[in-house]
Amino acid sequence: MTDSKKDPVIVVMQLSGGNDYMNTVVPHSNSQYRDYRPNVNIPEDEVLHLNNDIGFHPSMAPLADMYREGNVAIIHGVGYENSPRSHFRSMDIWHTCEPETLGTEGWLGRAVRQIDPGKKNVVTAVSMGPSLFRALVAPGVPVATVENLDNYGLLTDISPEEKRDRVLDRYKRIYSPMIGSGPVMDFLGQTGLDALKGADILNIAPEQYSSTVEYGDNSISKKLRSIAQIHLADLGTRVFYCDLGSFDTHADQLATHDKLWTAASGAIRDFFDDLEEHNAADNVTMFLFSEFGRRVYDNGAGTDHGAGGVCLAIGNQVKGGEYGQYPSMKESDLDQGDLVPDLDFRGVYTTLVEDWMKLDPVPIVGGQFEKPTFI
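The chain above was modelled as a monomer; its predicted structure follows.
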């Protein structure tokens, strides 16, 4: 379990675009794999064998090492019934836990509300990117949205703290007519104030940071380095969110997939090495997901939108190994050419919410679901 003095922290990495399950966790012992994929397959001698049946993509060597160390859980066949195979709708379902209707709140937004119901800390959740991910959106829940931590903050040159408070108060008075003109503007006005406060708080993270770990020069490495900086600044942030993409590999899949997983695997290893160097890794679990997998058959140069996918959980407190079963690849068991998921994604969320974050999962995921025991 986590250190009793340190609250559990989750880092979610969204693999946007539909990551190819079968070329990420390669079913190398199954002869049907190469029958279905004569052009878009991983050669047997390049697969990073994890056991007699599966292996990682060759660009995932850092994650293969972490798997062998017991710190990576592979969660097979994750999804939901009747996948629409639409990026927008599928991601919306993952973000809101609402497969049947259009959701209004993000699952992590609801989690943050449980963690900090009084909104005492406006940086309980941090979204790394140019816009706020819907998984974090919930009325009354502040989220700091950061595109570049080094340049983040509108009040960073204003000191002392009393002067910053006066600026915030002036901002509130200037916009008070607008803020008070309706619930939407009231929400936006408060969000603006929370964003200003969050910027002020997070600005100290780079200043306090020192590390011997050299991250790669790519977007996901920069995001994870910023997350490490904030985590190590001990600002009380409990939820981090970032993304990498695009995994929408209809064409040129072999080169694109290799580039993306090279960046992701190296960045994840650097991130955890960084936290280990600072004795700050034990209360952090990372979770990777994508909105859907891809078709079993290749299209000659890539793969098209599918259904069943794979999730990864990474961290010192993760019980490494495989969870669930690799979906059947028999043609008679496929659904319109797709692997059929047999583990509801809300069950995976339940493990993260209940067993890791120590929160009540039912109002967050919208019910009770069978959960894999990777925590």
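Confidence is low (pLDDT under 50) at residues 154-159, 184-189.
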